[in-house]
Amino acid sequence: MNHHNLISRLPKAELHLHIEGTLEPELMFALARRNAVELPFDSVEEVRAAYRFDNLQSFLDIYYQGADVLITEQDFYDLTWAYVMKCREQNVIHAEIFFDPQTHTGRGVPFETVIGGIHRALDDAGRRFGMTTGLILCFLRHLSEAEAFETLEMAMPYRDRIVGVGLDSSEKGHPPAKFERVFRRALDLGLRTVAHAGEEGPPEYIREALDRLGVSRIDHGVRCEEDDELVARLAEEQMPLTVCPLSNVALKVFDDLADHNLKRLLDRGLRVTVNSDDPSYFGGYVNENLAAVQAALDLDRDDIVRLVKNGFKASFLPRDKIEDCLDRVDRAVSGCEPSDLAD
Protein backbone atom coordinates (compact mmCIF):
# COMPACT_ATOMS: atom_id res chain seq x y z
CA MET A 1 0.00 0.00 0.00
CA ASN A 2 1.29 3.46 -0.94
CA HIS A 3 1.01 5.81 2.04
CA HIS A 4 2.16 8.93 0.16
CA ASN A 5 -0.87 10.99 1.26
CA LEU A 6 -0.40 10.00 4.89
CA ILE A 7 3.29 10.95 4.77
CA SER A 8 2.45 14.33 3.25
CA ARG A 9 -0.26 15.10 5.80
CA LEU A 10 1.68 14.23 8.93
CA PRO A 11 3.50 17.06 10.75
CA LYS A 12 7.13 16.07 11.10
CA ALA A 13 10.40 16.87 12.84
CA GLU A 14 13.82 16.68 11.21
CA LEU A 15 16.82 16.03 13.46
CA HIS A 16 19.65 15.18 11.06
CA LEU A 17 20.03 17.92 8.48
CA HIS A 18 23.23 19.67 7.44
CA ILE A 19 22.24 23.13 6.26
CA GLU A 20 25.20 23.22 3.86
CA GLY A 21 23.85 19.98 2.41
CA THR A 22 20.63 21.70 1.30
CA LEU A 23 22.52 23.81 -1.25
CA GLU A 24 20.65 23.02 -4.46
CA PRO A 25 22.64 23.43 -7.70
CA GLU A 26 20.45 26.33 -8.86
CA LEU A 27 21.24 28.31 -5.71
CA MET A 28 24.89 27.27 -5.93
CA PHE A 29 25.13 28.89 -9.36
CA ALA A 30 23.20 31.98 -8.26
CA LEU A 31 25.53 32.53 -5.30
CA ALA A 32 28.60 31.85 -7.44
CA ARG A 33 27.48 34.61 -9.79
CA ARG A 34 26.71 36.96 -6.90
CA ASN A 35 30.13 36.41 -5.33
CA ALA A 36 32.21 35.95 -8.51
CA VAL A 37 33.20 32.44 -7.48
CA GLU A 38 34.33 30.13 -10.26
CA LEU A 39 32.74 26.69 -10.13
CA PRO A 40 34.24 23.57 -11.71
CA PHE A 41 30.89 22.94 -13.41
CA ASP A 42 29.30 24.56 -16.45
CA SER A 43 25.65 23.79 -15.72
CA VAL A 44 23.14 22.60 -13.14
CA GLU A 45 22.92 19.33 -15.05
CA GLU A 46 26.68 18.83 -14.78
CA VAL A 47 26.53 19.41 -11.03
CA ARG A 48 23.77 16.85 -10.59
CA ALA A 49 25.67 14.37 -12.75
CA ALA A 50 28.60 14.68 -10.33
CA TYR A 51 26.42 13.47 -7.45
CA ARG A 52 27.46 9.84 -7.83
CA PHE A 53 29.43 8.83 -4.77
CA ASP A 54 31.53 5.81 -3.89
CA ASN A 55 31.74 6.50 -0.17
CA LEU A 56 31.52 9.26 2.43
CA GLN A 57 34.80 10.91 1.44
CA SER A 58 33.85 11.20 -2.25
CA PHE A 59 30.72 13.06 -1.14
CA LEU A 60 32.61 15.32 1.29
CA ASP A 61 35.03 16.39 -1.44
CA ILE A 62 32.24 17.91 -3.54
CA TYR A 63 30.29 19.09 -0.47
CA TYR A 64 33.16 21.31 0.69
CA GLN A 65 33.67 22.54 -2.87
CA GLY A 66 30.06 23.67 -3.08
CA ALA A 67 30.30 25.50 0.24
CA ASP A 68 32.85 27.90 -1.29
CA VAL A 69 29.99 29.98 -2.75
CA LEU A 70 28.76 30.84 0.78
CA ILE A 71 30.49 34.08 1.74
CA THR A 72 28.12 36.77 3.03
CA GLU A 73 25.49 36.76 5.75
CA GLN A 74 22.84 37.07 3.04
CA ASP A 75 24.19 33.90 1.39
CA PHE A 76 23.66 31.95 4.60
CA TYR A 77 20.24 33.52 5.00
CA ASP A 78 19.22 32.54 1.47
CA LEU A 79 20.52 29.00 1.95
CA THR A 80 18.58 28.57 5.19
CA TRP A 81 15.44 30.24 3.87
CA ALA A 82 15.34 27.85 0.93
CA TYR A 83 15.32 24.96 3.41
CA VAL A 84 12.60 26.65 5.47
CA MET A 85 10.42 26.86 2.37
CA LYS A 86 11.03 23.18 1.67
CA CYS A 87 9.92 22.45 5.23
CA ARG A 88 6.73 24.37 4.52
CA GLU A 89 6.08 22.19 1.47
CA GLN A 90 6.74 18.99 3.40
CA ASN A 91 4.96 19.83 6.66
CA VAL A 92 8.15 19.80 8.73
CA ILE A 93 7.15 21.90 11.73
CA HIS A 94 10.32 21.43 13.81
CA ALA A 95 13.93 21.13 12.67
CA GLU A 96 17.20 20.82 14.56
CA ILE A 97 19.81 21.92 12.07
CA PHE A 98 23.52 21.15 11.88
CA PHE A 99 25.94 23.79 10.68
CA ASP A 100 29.69 23.42 10.10
CA PRO A 101 31.39 26.71 11.05
CA GLN A 102 34.89 25.29 10.47
CA THR A 103 34.02 24.73 6.80
CA HIS A 104 33.65 28.52 6.55
CA THR A 105 35.99 30.03 9.14
CA GLY A 106 38.80 27.94 7.67
CA ARG A 107 38.46 29.91 4.41
CA GLY A 108 38.15 33.31 6.07
CA VAL A 109 34.40 33.69 6.59
CA PRO A 110 33.76 35.04 10.13
CA PHE A 111 31.76 32.90 12.55
CA GLU A 112 29.34 35.78 13.11
CA THR A 113 28.58 35.90 9.37
CA VAL A 114 27.68 32.22 9.30
CA ILE A 115 25.48 32.11 12.38
CA GLY A 116 24.03 35.55 11.68
CA GLY A 117 22.51 34.55 8.34
CA ILE A 118 21.30 31.14 9.48
CA HIS A 119 19.78 32.44 12.71
CA ARG A 120 18.03 35.36 11.03
CA ALA A 121 16.31 32.99 8.60
CA LEU A 122 15.24 30.66 11.41
CA ASP A 123 13.91 33.62 13.38
CA ASP A 124 11.85 34.65 10.36
CA ALA A 125 10.56 31.08 10.03
CA GLY A 126 9.36 31.20 13.61
CA ARG A 127 7.68 34.58 13.29
CA ARG A 128 6.05 33.96 9.91
CA PHE A 129 5.14 30.29 10.13
CA GLY A 130 5.38 29.24 13.78
CA MET A 131 8.13 26.79 12.87
CA THR A 132 10.34 25.77 15.79
CA THR A 133 14.05 25.19 15.28
CA GLY A 134 17.32 24.55 17.04
CA LEU A 135 20.90 25.02 15.87
CA ILE A 136 23.58 22.37 16.47
CA LEU A 137 27.21 23.38 15.94
CA CYS A 138 29.16 20.48 14.45
CA PHE A 139 32.89 19.94 14.81
CA LEU A 140 34.71 18.47 11.80
CA ARG A 141 36.23 15.25 13.09
CA HIS A 142 39.06 15.19 10.53
CA LEU A 143 40.39 18.33 12.25
CA SER A 144 41.96 18.39 15.72
CA GLU A 145 40.30 18.65 19.10
CA ALA A 146 42.27 21.86 19.66
CA GLU A 147 40.58 23.37 16.60
CA ALA A 148 37.22 22.20 17.94
CA PHE A 149 37.94 24.03 21.21
CA GLU A 150 38.74 27.19 19.22
CA THR A 151 35.42 26.90 17.39
CA LEU A 152 33.52 26.40 20.64
CA GLU A 153 35.10 29.58 22.01
CA MET A 154 34.08 31.46 18.84
CA ALA A 155 30.51 30.35 19.53
CA MET A 156 30.36 31.66 23.09
CA PRO A 157 29.03 35.15 22.20
CA TYR A 158 26.16 33.34 20.42
CA ARG A 159 25.53 30.72 23.10
CA ASP A 160 21.82 31.61 23.27
CA ARG A 161 21.42 30.70 19.59
CA ILE A 162 22.87 27.18 19.89
CA VAL A 163 21.11 24.19 21.45
CA GLY A 164 23.94 21.69 21.16
CA VAL A 165 27.14 20.48 19.54
CA GLY A 166 27.70 17.56 17.19
CA LEU A 167 30.44 15.67 15.39
CA ASP A 168 30.48 15.06 11.64
CA SER A 169 32.74 14.71 8.57
CA SER A 170 35.05 11.73 7.89
CA GLU A 171 34.25 9.01 10.41
CA LYS A 172 36.90 6.38 9.62
CA GLY A 173 40.03 6.88 11.69
CA HIS A 174 38.49 9.63 13.81
CA PRO A 175 36.80 7.97 16.82
CA PRO A 176 34.50 9.97 19.09
CA ALA A 177 37.00 9.66 21.95
CA LYS A 178 39.27 12.07 20.08
CA PHE A 179 36.84 14.85 21.11
CA GLU A 180 36.00 13.77 24.65
CA ARG A 181 37.33 16.90 26.38
CA VAL A 182 35.64 19.43 24.12
CA PHE A 183 32.34 17.57 24.46
CA ARG A 184 32.76 17.58 28.24
CA ARG A 185 33.26 21.34 28.06
CA ALA A 186 30.08 21.70 25.96
CA LEU A 187 28.11 19.65 28.49
CA ASP A 188 29.45 21.82 31.31
CA LEU A 189 28.12 24.85 29.38
CA GLY A 190 24.65 23.30 29.34
CA LEU A 191 24.71 22.31 25.66
CA ARG A 192 23.26 19.04 24.42
CA THR A 193 25.55 16.68 22.54
CA VAL A 194 25.03 14.42 19.54
CA ALA A 195 27.50 12.62 17.26
CA HIS A 196 27.69 10.84 13.94
CA ALA A 197 28.66 7.27 14.73
CA GLY A 198 28.14 3.85 13.20
CA GLU A 199 27.67 5.03 9.61
CA GLU A 200 31.05 4.03 8.17
CA GLY A 201 32.64 3.60 11.57
CA PRO A 202 32.20 0.43 13.68
CA PRO A 203 29.71 -0.20 16.52
CA GLU A 204 32.49 0.67 18.99
CA TYR A 205 32.23 4.30 17.81
CA ILE A 206 28.59 4.28 18.96
CA ARG A 207 29.64 3.05 22.40
CA GLU A 208 32.31 5.76 22.61
CA ALA A 209 29.76 8.44 21.67
CA LEU A 210 27.46 7.22 24.43
CA ASP A 211 30.04 6.69 27.16
CA ARG A 212 32.66 9.33 26.43
CA LEU A 213 30.74 12.14 24.73
CA GLY A 214 27.52 11.88 26.75
CA VAL A 215 25.33 12.14 23.66
CA SER A 216 21.56 12.47 23.70
CA ARG A 217 21.25 11.06 20.15
CA ILE A 218 23.28 8.94 17.74
CA ASP A 219 23.35 10.30 14.19
CA HIS A 220 23.07 7.37 11.75
CA GLY A 221 23.98 4.48 14.07
CA VAL A 222 22.89 1.81 11.59
CA ARG A 223 25.95 -0.39 12.17
CA CYS A 224 24.75 -1.01 15.74
CA GLU A 225 23.08 -4.13 14.30
CA GLU A 226 26.49 -5.82 14.18
CA ASP A 227 26.50 -5.90 18.01
CA ASP A 228 23.46 -7.50 19.67
CA GLU A 229 24.42 -6.24 23.12
CA LEU A 230 24.63 -2.69 21.80
CA VAL A 231 21.24 -3.00 20.07
CA ALA A 232 19.71 -4.17 23.35
CA ARG A 233 21.26 -1.22 25.17
CA LEU A 234 20.00 1.29 22.60
CA ALA A 235 16.50 -0.17 22.87
CA GLU A 236 16.52 -0.20 26.68
CA GLU A 237 17.78 3.40 26.91
CA GLN A 238 15.52 4.53 24.05
CA MET A 239 18.57 6.25 22.58
CA PRO A 240 17.41 7.89 19.35
CA LEU A 241 19.02 7.04 16.03
CA THR A 242 18.69 9.75 13.38
CA VAL A 243 18.70 7.51 10.33
CA CYS A 244 19.02 8.87 6.78
CA PRO A 245 17.98 6.13 4.33
CA LEU A 246 18.64 7.80 0.96
CA SER A 247 22.00 9.02 2.23
CA ASN A 248 22.93 5.52 3.38
CA VAL A 249 22.31 4.12 -0.09
CA ALA A 250 24.00 7.03 -1.90
CA LEU A 251 27.15 6.54 0.21
CA LYS A 252 27.11 2.74 -0.13
CA VAL A 253 26.42 1.99 3.52
CA PHE A 254 23.71 -0.25 2.02
CA ASP A 255 23.78 -1.39 -1.59
CA ASP A 256 20.03 -1.05 -2.00
CA LEU A 257 17.22 0.47 0.04
CA ALA A 258 15.59 -2.96 0.24
CA ASP A 259 18.66 -4.07 2.24
CA HIS A 260 18.32 -1.27 4.81
CA ASN A 261 17.97 -2.34 8.44
CA LEU A 262 15.59 0.46 9.50
CA LYS A 263 12.57 -1.86 9.77
CA ARG A 264 14.53 -4.47 11.71
CA LEU A 265 15.79 -1.85 14.16
CA LEU A 266 12.30 -0.42 14.55
CA ASP A 267 10.89 -3.88 15.23
CA ARG A 268 13.55 -4.46 17.88
CA GLY A 269 12.25 -1.46 19.80
CA LEU A 270 14.83 1.17 18.88
CA ARG A 271 13.82 4.83 18.70
CA VAL A 272 14.52 5.20 14.98
CA THR A 273 13.80 8.48 13.19
CA VAL A 274 13.91 9.32 9.46
CA ASN A 275 15.82 12.35 8.19
CA SER A 276 17.37 13.67 4.98
CA ASP A 277 21.01 14.42 5.95
CA ASP A 278 22.21 16.35 2.86
CA PRO A 279 19.09 16.31 0.67
CA SER A 280 20.44 18.30 -2.26
CA TYR A 281 23.14 15.69 -2.78
CA PHE A 282 21.21 12.51 -1.92
CA GLY A 283 18.00 12.96 -3.85
CA GLY A 284 15.31 13.82 -1.35
CA TYR A 285 14.04 15.63 1.72
CA VAL A 286 12.13 14.04 4.60
CA ASN A 287 8.99 13.10 2.65
CA GLU A 288 11.03 11.49 -0.11
CA ASN A 289 13.02 9.52 2.47
CA LEU A 290 9.86 8.31 4.20
CA ALA A 291 8.16 7.42 0.92
CA ALA A 292 11.22 5.58 -0.40
CA VAL A 293 11.79 3.52 2.72
CA GLN A 294 8.06 2.78 3.06
CA ALA A 295 7.98 1.34 -0.44
CA ALA A 296 11.29 -0.53 -0.18
CA LEU A 297 10.62 -2.08 3.24
CA ASP A 298 6.82 -2.36 2.99
CA LEU A 299 6.23 -0.22 6.05
CA ASP A 300 2.64 -0.08 7.24
CA ARG A 301 0.69 2.87 8.61
CA ASP A 302 1.71 2.19 12.20
CA ASP A 303 5.39 2.06 11.22
CA ILE A 304 5.16 5.44 9.52
CA VAL A 305 3.31 7.07 12.41
CA ARG A 306 5.80 5.60 14.88
CA LEU A 307 8.77 6.92 12.89
CA VAL A 308 7.22 10.39 12.75
CA LYS A 309 6.36 10.40 16.45
CA ASN A 310 9.88 9.23 17.26
CA GLY A 311 11.17 12.37 15.57
CA PHE A 312 9.36 14.58 18.06
CA LYS A 313 10.15 12.34 21.04
CA ALA A 314 13.85 12.47 20.17
CA SER A 315 13.89 16.25 19.75
CA PHE A 316 15.24 18.84 22.16
CA LEU A 317 11.85 20.51 22.44
CA PRO A 318 10.42 21.00 25.95
CA ARG A 319 8.22 18.14 27.11
CA ASP A 320 4.97 20.11 26.78
CA LYS A 321 5.84 21.09 23.20
CA ILE A 322 6.61 17.46 22.35
CA GLU A 323 3.19 16.43 23.66
CA ASP A 324 1.56 19.16 21.57
CA CYS A 325 3.33 17.88 18.46
CA LEU A 326 2.34 14.28 19.17
CA ASP A 327 -1.27 15.44 19.50
CA ARG A 328 -0.96 17.15 16.11
CA VAL A 329 0.22 13.87 14.59
CA ASP A 330 -2.78 12.04 16.07
CA ARG A 331 -5.17 14.69 14.74
CA ALA A 332 -3.58 14.44 11.29
CA VAL A 333 -4.05 10.66 11.30
CA SER A 334 -7.67 11.07 12.39
CA GLY A 335 -8.25 13.52 9.53
CA CYS A 336 -6.90 11.23 6.81
CA GLU A 337 -9.12 9.54 4.29
CA PRO A 338 -9.66 5.81 4.91
CA SER A 339 -7.76 5.04 1.69
CA ASP A 340 -4.69 6.78 3.11
CA LEU A 341 -4.71 4.59 6.20
CA ALA A 342 -5.51 1.19 4.75
CA ASP A 343 -2.74 -1.40 4.94
Gist of the model:
The chain has helices at residues 4-9, 25-35, 44-49, 56-66, 73-90, 101-105, 111-129, 145-155, 180-188, 203-212, 228-237, 245-250, 262-267, 279-282, 286-297, 301-313, 319-334, 338-341; strands at 12-18, 92-99, 132-140, 164-168, 192-197, 217-220, 241-243, 272-274. It is an alpha/beta fold.
Explain this structure to me?
An eight-stranded parallel β-sheet has the order 1-2-3-4-5-6-7-8. The protein is globular and about 50 Å long. It has helices at residues 4-9, 25-35, 44-49, 56-66, 73-90, 101-105, 111-129, 145-155, 180-188, 203-212, 228-237, 245-250, 262-267, 279-282, 286-297, 301-313, 319-334, 338-341, and strands at 12-18, 92-99, 132-140, 164-168, 192-197, 217-220, 241-243, 272-274. It contains 18 helices and eight strands. It is an alpha/beta fold and 343 residues long. Strand 3, helix 8 and strand 4 form a beta-alpha-beta unit. Helix 5 runs parallel beside helix 7.
Major β-sheet strand ordering: 1-2-3-4-5-6-7-8
Low-confidence stretches: none
Terminal Cα span? 6 Å
Number of helices: 18
> What is the radius of gyration computed over CA atoms, rounded to a whole number of angstroms?
19 Å
What would the principal axes of the Cα set say about the shape?
globular
Total count of strands: 8
Largest sheet: 8 strands, parallel
Strand-residue fraction?
5-15%
Structural class: alpha/beta
Helix content class = 40-55%
Assembly context of the chains: single chain
The SSE order reads HEHHHHEHHEHEHEHEHEHHEHHHHH
**Could you report the average pLDDT, rounded to the nearest whole number?**
95
